[in-house]
Amino acid sequence: MGLQEYQRKRRFDVTPEPSGIARMGQKRFQDLVYVVQKHRASRLHYDFRLEWDGALISWAVPKGPSLDPSVKRFAMRVEDHPIDYAAFEGVIPEGEYGGGTVMLWDKGTWVPQQEDEHENVEAALGKGELKFTLRGNKLKGSWVLVRNRRFGKNPSRSSWLLIKHRDRYASTKDVTESEPYSVASHRLLADIARDEGGDAAKAASGDPIQKKRRAARTWGTN
Ligand code: MN
Fold it and tell me: Is residue 21 scored above 90 in pLDDT?
């Protein structure tokens, strides 16, 4: 898909997000990177990203992933992001595209369950059924993304479902509630916003209620 849409939407002299210009097309990792970024923008969502072909192919998952194989989570395919974005956690200024707080919620590597040949992942994306194994801190085991609707001809706008396969990592535990902290810094959204000049009250609305109160006490605004 390329990074043109990503770059067109952002002003890199204003947002701290990576431009992707230097890294485009370079392969820096032996294993394919996987990340989920919890993003309190105009609405809370989880950005699910898989390294492929020098970029991060990306889906926005409003409710976040579920470990329960009977639960299908809506996932909107969004524009590819640069590989460097996998390390991004911080505050996108209000008024900029995606303005709000970004947490690195999970990270690790992924393995396509189709054979790991280039053509096979491309074919799976084209066919609308991508099976893969996650080796993250929070999300592990076998998953599938299934496309259920296209919007016009733009491949960066289609609706998919993110589903856990039944394996030993399947669970009815609500992982978004039980694991609300950054995998990089162990902060909540409110902590990240406070530390980095963002809107802490808005960010806190994306944190679980009890954790949010505890965080609020530690910085004395309760
Ligand atoms: Mn986002």
Answer: no
Please count the structural domains in the chain: 1
CA dihedral angle for residue 191, residue 192, residue 198, residue 199, rounded to 10 degrees: -40
Give which of 116, 130, 120, 103 is closest to 30, Cα–Cα: 116
Q: Is the torsion defined by CA of 139, 33, 35, 188 positive or negative?
A: positive
Does the structure show a pLDDT above 50 at 38? yes
Which structural domain, as residue segments, surrounds residue 57? 4-221
Q: Where are the alpha helices (DSSP H) in 51-199?
A: 118-127, 175-178, 189-195
Report, in this order, helix, strand and coil percent for the chain, each rounded to 5: 20, 35, 45
Per DSSP, the residues of 13-64 read TT--S---TTTTT----SSEEEEEEEEESSSEEEEEEEEETTEEEEEEETT-
If you measure from the C-alpha of residue 119 to the centroid of ligand 1, how many angstroms do you get, rounded to a whole number? 28
Pick from 111, 103, 65, 81: nearest CA to 10: 81
Q: Please name the helix (run of DSSP H) or strand (run of DSSP E) that holds residue 66, with its range, or none.
A: none
Q: How far is the CA of 30 from the centre of ligand 1 (A)?
A: 26
- Interval 44-102: pLDDT, tens: 999 999 999 999 999 999 999 999 999 999 999 999 999 999 999 999 999 999 999 99
How much distance in Å is there from the Cα of 15 to the middle of ligand 1? 14
Distance 39 CA to ligand 1 centre (A): 5
